[in-house]
Amino acid sequence: MAAVTRGSFAVLRRLLTQQYRRRCFRLQSVRCDRTVQPLAFRWDRNIQMLSSRTLHIASVSRGPIVQFKLSDIGEGIMEVTVKEWYVKEGDKVSQFDSICEVQSDKASVTITSRYDGVIKRLYYDVDATALVGKPLVDIETEAGPAVIPEEDVVETPAMAREEHTHQEIKGLKTQATPAVRRLAIENNIKLSEVVGTGRDGRILKEDILNFLAKQTGAIIPPTLFQEIQTPPPAPATAARPASTAAAAKPPPATPRPVFTGKDVTEPLKGFHKAMVRTMTAALKIPHFGYCDEVDLSRLVSLRSELRSIAEARGVKLSYMPFFIKAASLGLLHFPVLNASVDEGCQNITYKASHNIGLAMDTLQGLLVPNVKNVQLLSVFDIAQELNRLQALGVAGQLGTSELSGGTFTLSNIGSIGGTYAKPVILPPEVAIGALGKIQVLPQYEHIHVL
Amino acid sequence: MSHVRRSLSLLRVDGVLGGVFGGCDASGLVLLSRSTDVFENLALEDWIDANVDLQRRGVLLLWRNRPAVVIGRHQNPWAECNLAAMRRAAVPLARRRSGGGTVYHDLGNLNMTFFASKKAYDRQRNLSVVTGALRRARPGLDVHATERLDILLNGRFKISGSASRLSRKSSYHHCTLLHSADRSALAAVLRPSCPGIHSNATPSVPSPVANLLDHAPSLQWDELLDALVQQYNAEFGYDAAVAPVDPADELAFPGVGRAVAELRGWDWTFSKTPKFSVQTALHLTDAVSAASCSARLHVEVKGGVVESCVLDVPAHWLPPRLVAALAAALVGDRFCRQRAAAAVAAVLRTENGELQRRLLDLGDALVSVIS
């Protein structure tokens, strides 16, 4: 069985090659053999169908590499400085996508692509001088319409008259590349009915396919989508080019999450790496945890009384100043909790100042700004200082003095809705407290045993 | 559904702005922004550039801002302005989309944006509108436009600077006009934030400036605006009246809110900074032993993010692995004082005693360089 299959496959292959050769030969020669023609014709039609289907599915089929020249900018300018590239070699671009930003004599110019295709070569580095009329990038265009317009063409698709008039008044143009338009025509879709998710509301191939899927209830195979959807941004490095105008006016449709099913690995560096060391050192400390619930009814009423007085003096009063002061008062009784031990636990240093830190979660990571010398401050002073630290934090201006030198830390897990927490001691400190959220709960006050 | 909403919003726009943007064919358009927020006005500029059909007619936008510093598209904010001083004075920083240098805007500075198609882009013509208007209002005034597209008063003082932006089919050219700006505030803010910056970003060219009001004391703001509008209409053959617009009006300018948010964001303002490096010396002291030494810092910043950080500290002062750990802790984060301080604090936690003291001093010196 196998031998037969192999044999027939070999025959088929030879046959294919013959037909293929004949087809090539036919293209090259003046006139073809009549007897061969029907076979060749059938074969050609298959190829044609395949290629048009491929055009629907695949992203790029090999086409000519076009040198995209830097067009005239006006005012007799002959050279410009390339300031920023929005694409790199290998990126896919569509017509009207931004390619780079150049600058000349206080004029900033965005150069947009005239073609659909793949960037093959960038002719200049950033800060290099580019010459007008010379090639800027090489683009490998898609095998599609042979004629690529030299000038930017304003396309006005056939639309309902009312829509057309509105478009005119607003001066907007519905944009879609010729390839997309062909796709729409072949599938009997009115461009005006499709929501464009590209730049400036431009209609992309994916929009047509989405529209098709919704109309026919067809399930487009996931591989199809994967090929079409733009690749995810490279992690931790300069991301996929985003043109300035596109970022200024993002597409009106809700963005679909891009799922490609690929794991992303990136090295841990900078702050996160430093925190790994800190946390590893922290967990070397043997931890003992103790939890309790405290009735804060009187604190709640006290704060509401004092709040207006504090605000009159320009200070926002939260619960934290009370907790911080209470912690400091506790540390006066138990100075061992405000201490520090050296490497190897040889010596213990009892710190004089109560520099109580407040753990904060920020975009960067865990920050712990601390209030210095709480033992000398009143609740109001602490509130003032917390306001100052918060303002600094918002402005991104916390410095080393605010962020280091702490001797004891409080973590307000209640601010993110937590009730209980198991905090981690931050070296070189020896203790940390976590506060859950304040809740109103029914409790038995006194139980009389009858 | 969103497609229907989009058509509806188009209809609404036409209803509201039919009188403004609809209009007859060859008439120009003169808009006066009601907002004094620099981000809203810049977003409005971009909106007009992207959405209004400029092929057959031009648009003139008149606007002014509360105190703000505006840097050019490819400039380096750390090199151009003192960010710490600006924060203290609550002066915001904005990066515009056109090229050129750094300017200080306040309510005594008039901004004019001339929108035109790319074919009709002609900056000298636009400036002739300004000089023409000034001469018509005050015939004796010596104002002329230079080749660098500045306008000089009495041949010496710069009263206007220009910048422009060219897109696929449209263009805009905007320029300032110093009417009655606060020149002392300007000087305090337009100086570098960090020492030792090396960059290829577009530098600003400082020039002596003057206010129009100092040399033509009777020329009030409204008279100036009127003269400009008249001259604009005369030059381009339009017959436009001034139409006040509110850049915050999402109905009139759909999508402008998002543009404003983007202009305010860190990504646009700082991350668009071209690659630069900071190379400077640090002076270290040990408070307890009163010893001191000198170190070198070399930071490479790309896209507003620290790409590399090298600290060259004498080996006797601190162990090299510790110094390297401190330098490495800054890499990958924004070039920002707080981020650097947090990284330093994280590294400090794992050290003790004399090492920690010296490391803290080094960290302090390092962080104080970063603004």
Automatic annotation (TrEMBL), chain B:
Pfam families: LplA-B_cat (PF21948). GO terms for biological process: protein lipoylation. Pathway: Protein modification; protein lipoylation via exogenous pathway; protein N(6)-(lipoyl)lysine from lipoate: step 2/2. GO terms for cellular component: mitochondrion. One of its GO terms (molecular function) is lipoyltransferase activity. Gene3D superfamilies: Bira Bifunctional Protein, Domain 2, CO dehydrogenase flavoprotein, C-terminal domain. Residues 54-240 form the BPL/LPL catalytic domain. InterPro entries: aa-tRNA-synth_II/BPL/LPL (IPR045864), BPL_LPL_catalytic (IPR004143), LipoylTrfase_LipoateP_Ligase (IPR004562). Coiled coil: none annotated. PANTHER family: LIPOATE-PROTEIN LIGASE, LIPOYLTRANSFERASE 1, MITOCHONDRIAL. Belongs to the LplA family. This is Lipoyltransferase 1. The lineage of its organism: Eukaryota, Metazoa, Chordata, Craniata, Vertebrata. The gene is lipt1.
